Amino acid sequence: MTLDTSRRAFLAGAAAVGTALVVGIRPDGALAANADTMLNPFVRITPDGQVTAIVKHFEMGQGPVTGLTTLIAEELGLTMDQIDYDFAPSNPEVYANMLLGPIQGTGGSTAMANAYAQYRQAGAAAREMLIAAAAETWGVDAGTLKIEDGMVTGAGNSAPLAAFVAKAATLDAPAVPRLKDPSEFRLIGNADVRRLDSAAKGNGTAMYGMDLHLPDQMVTMIARPEQQRATVVSFDDSAAREIKGFISAATLPNHTGVAVFAEHTWAAMRARDALDVTWDTSSAETRSSDEIEAEIRAALEAEPAYNVNKTDAAATQAALDGAAQVVEETFYFPLLAHAPMEPLNCTIEATADGGILMHDAAQIPTLPHSAMAQIFDLPMEKIQIKTMLAGGSFGRRATPEADYQVEAALAFATTDRTRPVKLVWSREDDLRSGYFRPAFGHKVRVGLDEAGNIVGWDHRIAGQSIMKGTPFEQFLVHDGVDHSSVEGASDTPYQIPGAHFGLTDTEKATSTLWWRSVGHTHTAYVMETMMDKAAKAAGVDPVDYRLQYLTGDGVDQQRKAGVLRLAAEKAGWGNAPAGHTQGIAVHKSFASYVAEVVEISGNAEDGVKIEKVTCAVDCGLAVNPDVIKAQMEGGIGYGIGHNMRDKITLTGGVVDQFNFPDYEPLRISDIGAIDVHIVPSAEPPTGVGEPGTPPAAAALANAIAAASDVRIGALPLADNGISFA
Fold first, then answer.
1. Of 49, 245, 352, 498, which is most buried with the most CB atoms under 10 A?
2. Which residues form the domain of 632?
C-alpha cells in the first residue's frame, strides 16, 4: 500500500486519474463534496471505483484503520475487500480529534468515539450521491436504487459504482444523509470481519517508521545524559572518527545531547558510544528510588494539598472514628516504562519547495507540526507529516514536548539539509532516557459498621503530576488538581457513603507521561483491592459486596454492575476447579466498563500460575468485535505483565534498567487463556484500547489474596513476596 498522504501528493494523484469524488465534513459540520478540493475528506472514490477511507487516527495496533474503514464500507455498501485506507495529512483545522480539543491526535481511547458519526455520515453521503447520479443517468427514482457489494442496482438496472463517480462529483452533498438502521448492518458488529492491515503486517509489506530508508539518508543517534536535565558542555569525537561509516557529530541547539551522523544505524551506534561528552549536571536529577518513594509516603501521612471532591474531611474522619472496624492499606506504584516493541524513530527531509517533510508514526501530529514550524521558521503549510504505522506506543509517541520529533528536527537543522536524516532510538535509549508512568502512592482507610457496610472512605493520593508544567496544564488541571492523578478513584461509579479524596503533588524525578490507561493504572488497583478487603472484613462475597454499591438507576452503576455479573457468570464464579482460586475486579475507564476474573493455581509461597482470565466489556456498540477482543486480551496482558515484575528504579538519578532482560515483558506462558465477552449494546461506541488494562492486576492480586491471605500494597508483585510458576 502507498501511504503518501500529503496534501500535495493527494491532489496530484487525483488529477492524474481524472475526476474523483471526495466526501467529508467541513469544519462547520456541513457535509461537502468536490471533485477538485479536499474539504476534510473521509471518503475518496476515483473514477475507476477505488474507494479509500482517509483515516485521521494513527494506527499503533489498536485498530482504527479497520474500525473507521468499516464504518464507511458499511454505509457505502461495500465489502471489506473493496475498500483501502490512507492516513490523513496533518491538518488540525479539519482533522481535529473533537474529544481531545483543537488538535489532531489519537489517545484516550477516543478514535472510535470521536469518529463514529463522522465516518458513517461521510459514507452515507457518498452512497446517496452515487445513487442520485445513477438515478439521473437511468431516469429512475433514486428511492428504487441501492448499493450492495459495490454495485448500484434497482429498477431493472445494474452497474458498478465506478460508472457514476464523475457525475456524482458534480452533485451537492446531502445536508443530512440517511444513516442505515442497525437492522441493515452487514459489517458493523460482524465478528467475522477481520483486521484490514493483518495481511500486510503478516507478510512484511506493512511500512513502519523503522522500515523507511530514503535514498542517500543519514542515520542519527543521540548521546544523552544519564541523569535527566543535564546538558552538554563539550564533546570529543576523536574516537568516533575511526568508526567506518561515521560522518559527523554536533551538539543539539538546545544542548540536551550530541547528535552523531553516520551512513547506517550500526555505525551511528558505535560512533555514539565512542564519544567523550562532558556534561553539566548542576541541575540534573540526583535522587534515588528510595528517596522518591519516601517523599511520596511522607506526603500520604500529611494533610492533602487538595480536597479533590470538595467533601468534608472532618465528617469522614468522624465516621471512621465511630466505625465498628476500619480496614486500611498503603500502596506504592513505581515508575514504569512504556516499552513498545518498535523503538522510537522518525525521518526528516527537505522538500523541493523549501519545506520540511517528516515521516513518522505521529500520535499527535499537531505537536511536532507546530514545533517544526518554529524550529525552521516556516509557515505551517510548508510542513508535512507523512504518517507511518507504529509498532506500539502505549502513550509514548505522544509527549507534550514532541520530544523525539523535536530531537530529529534539531539534528537535521545542524546539517546542510541536503540529505534526509533518520533518527533512531535504541530500546536502551527509551528505557533509560525516555518518559515514564509516574510513581504514585495511596493511603486508604475504610470504616465499616457492625453489618459490614461502608460508613466512611478516606483516600489520600500522592504522586508526580503528568499535566502540570506542560502545555496541557491550562486545559486539564482545575483548582490545582490534575485529574489524571485521581481518575478512577474520585469519580468512581461506586456509591460510597462518607468518601473523601485528597491529593498531594510530589516533585517529578523524571519526565512523566500518560501510560496505557493513565491514572487508572494505579487507581483501579487500589479501589478494587480495597473493595475486596472490605468484603472479606464484612464476610460478604466480593461480587455481592460490590453490587451493594452499584444500585439505583444511574447508567454508570447499571453498566458497571452488568459487566460484573457477566464476568462472574462466564467465569463460573465460586465454582473454580479444585486447586484453583479466583479474584475479581471491575472498573470504568474511557467511558467503557470492564470486569475481569483471574483464576490461578498455586499460592504466593509455592508459585502462582495464571490459568485463565475471563473478561466482560461494555463499550457501547461493538463495531469490530474481533478488534475489541484483541484489545481486551492485549490490555489484560499489559496490565498483568508490568505489575507482575516490572519497575524503573533510579540510583543517583540514573535509571538502573536497560533492556528486556531487566525490564521483562509478559511471556506467552504467563497466562493460560483469556476469554472475552462483549455486552450487546446500542449505545454509541466508546474506547477499547486502554480499558482492559486497569482491572487486570487488581483481579490477580485479589486471586492471590484469596489463595494465600496475602495482600500486596507495593508493586511489582514479584518484588513483594509473590513468586510465579
1. 498
2. 303-336+436-720
C-alpha distances (whole Å) from 685 to each of 113, 194, 536, 622 are: 6, 18, 36, 7
Number of domains into which the chain is organized: 3
Per-residue pLDDT tens for 22-50? 665 444 444 444 443 222 379 999 888 89
**pLDDT tens for residues 255-265?**
999 999 999 99
Distance CA 640, CA 638 (A): 6
Q: What is the pTM of this model?
A: 0.93
Whether residue 287 is contained in a domain is answered as no
Q: Is residue 686 part of a domain?
A: yes
Residue 385: helix, strand or coil by DSSP?
A: strand
Looking at 395, 424, 453, the residue that finishes a domain is 424
- Rounded distance between C-alpha atoms, residue 128 and residue 5, angstroms: 26
| Same domain, residue pair 392 and 278 | yes
Residue 541, pLDDT > 80, answer: yes
**Encoded amino acid at 721, one letter:** G
Q: Is 215 in the same domain as 182?
A: no
| 83-87: strand order across its sheet | 31-34, 21-25, 41-45, 51-55, 83-87
Paired with 335 in beta bridges are 648
Rounded Cα distance between 713 and 310, Å, is 27
Q: Collapsing DSSP states into helix, strand and coil, what is residue 42?
A: strand
Mean pLDDT of 333-354: 97
Q: Give, as one character, the DSSP assignment of residue 673.
A: -
Residue 100: predicted pLDDT:
86
Q: Is residue 420 part of a domain?
A: yes
Question: Are 373 and 482 within one domain?
Answer: no
Which secondary-structure segment (H or E) carries 637?
A: helix 625-645
Pair 579, 695 in one domain: yes
Given CA atoms 465, 470, 476, 478 in this order, what sign does their dihedral have?
A: positive
Strand partners for 724: 608
Residue 405 inside a domain? The answer is yes
